[in-house]
Amino acid sequence: MRIRPRRAVLTLLALLAVLAARDADPQDDPPFKWRTDLETARAQAKTEKKPLLLVFR
Amino acid sequence: MVRPPREFREAAWDYVCVRVLDMKGVDLDLYRFDYDLTFAAVLMNPDGTIYHHYGGRDTGDPAGMLAMRSFAQLLKDGMETHAEYMKNPKPPAASSKRPIESLAPMARRMKAAKQECIHCHTVNDVEREVAQADGSWTADRIWKWPSPAQIGMSLDPEDQVRVTEVVPGSPLDRAGVKKEDRLIRLGGRSVRSFSDVQRVLEETPNHAGSLLIEFEHMTRAEKAMIPIEEGWKTGTPLTLSWRPSMWGLRPNPGFGGPMLTGEEKAKLGLPRSDFAIRIQYLITWGDHPEDGRNALKAGFKKDDVVLSVAGKKDFQTTQHFQAWFRLTQKPGTDAEFEVLREGKVQNIRMKVIP
Predict the structure, then answer these.
(1) Domain interval for residue A48
(2) Å from B18 to nearest chain A CA?
(3) In this structure, is residue A57 part of a structural domain?
(4) Which domains, from first to last, does chain B contain?
(5) Residue B87: its chain A contacts at CB < 8 A?
(6) Taking the mean position of all CA atoms in its chain, how far away is CA B237?
(7) Best mutation target, A37, A40, A44, A53, to test chain B (most B CBs within 10 A)
(8) Phi/psi class of residue B332: alpha, beta or left (left: φ > 0; alpha: ψ in -120 to 50)?
């Protein structure tokens, strides 16, 4: 079978758009963010009166 | 980076979330958890008050107690704990920061070789070395973060306050707790997870006494005292075997290697269910090269297949064998091994060194 590059690219873009739409999540706006600096995060939690969730891996 | 599942993102929305991959700079007095874990979560107030823990494990499956449902539930419960705490906060007394690199054994390691990343389990090794140097080390300190199984309790991985089993005759059984009861508090502390129970057990002395348990039995709140015996935290070589900090204990055999697969055993004419490990390395490097030299002197060679030690061959894993050796063998005595080499079974006697 002959592969048509233009059609292949368009198909791929369409597929990516479908996947992105399926993955879209209004709850994730702004995107979920992991902090990596422990003391900065602690200071932020203090200011915002929020608890901290620390994950050690 | 893989995006966390929606169930988690929703539950974690009101938290400031931090991922810590390196223990460098982490205050060991403030952030206490089971350092042997490869995944540990701590829910806390920024003032240093710890609300809940998650991520604990038992001897079996490393992920046996990890479930998104129970983790998300704990995050929801943690928000209630936080709201309650904020009505009357009692911050712990401030202390000077104690990062791992301030401890002498870690400082020495860092001087000897550049440490790109300090793993969590290194904390246990370094704290043991500090205690051994200042004379405060006692053998029972290896029984860290005891599993609820030590008091006869099994919990549901998906709903970690639900008791799924009470071992007959165990301390929990004697307290009158039944299967399907639900945990409320232990030792006066609110417990919402397997790790929360472990935390209370960690803080309970290894001596005879009792531990208050508050639980729900058939929707009715009840209280009871769990009777605990002297040395109740003491586990078995198998319960110690999964912990990375086990490897730093002494004495050790001076060699290591993997268990043979069933196929490899069959090729050697060994029953598939038998214990057999192939010596992959002799420890002639690092802090204790004398261990490997001792094994070489006794006659061990790389690729030997160890079949038994002191007539014992019911080890489940190579780590089980290693933990057994460390817990049972006494320096100055001889350890007798049965070894398969080039198709012949040989006996090797090795002096156990401290």
Answers:
(1) 32-57
(2) 4
(3) yes
(4) 148-228 (2.30.42.10), 250-351 (2.30.42.10)
(5) none
(6) 12
(7) A53
(8) left
Structural domain contains residue A39:
yes
**Residue B152 zone, left/alpha/beta (φ > 0; ψ -120 to 50; rest):** left
- Region of B165 on the Ramachandran plot (φ > 0 left; ψ -120 to 50 alpha; else beta): beta
ipTM confidence: 0.91
Q: Report CB contact under 8 Å: B14, A46.
A: no
Whether residues A56 and B14 touch (CB distance < 8 A) is answered with: no
* The total number of structural domains that make up chain A: 1
Q: Decide the pairing of beta strands B50-54 and B281-282.
A: unpaired
Neighbours of A53 (CB within 10 A): 28
Averaged pLDDT in 10-residue chunks for chain B of 354 residues: 79 95 94 96 97 95 96 97 97 90 93 86 96 95 97 98 98 98 98 98 97 97 98 97 96 97 95 95 93 97 97 95 98 97 96 97
Token pair for A24: 């879209």
Q: Which residues of B touch A31 (CB under 8 A)?
A: 3
- DSSP codes joined into one string, B219-253: TEEEEEEEEE-TTTT---HHHHHT-GGGGG-SS--
pLDDT 10s digits, B207-231: 999 999 999 999 999 999 999 999 9
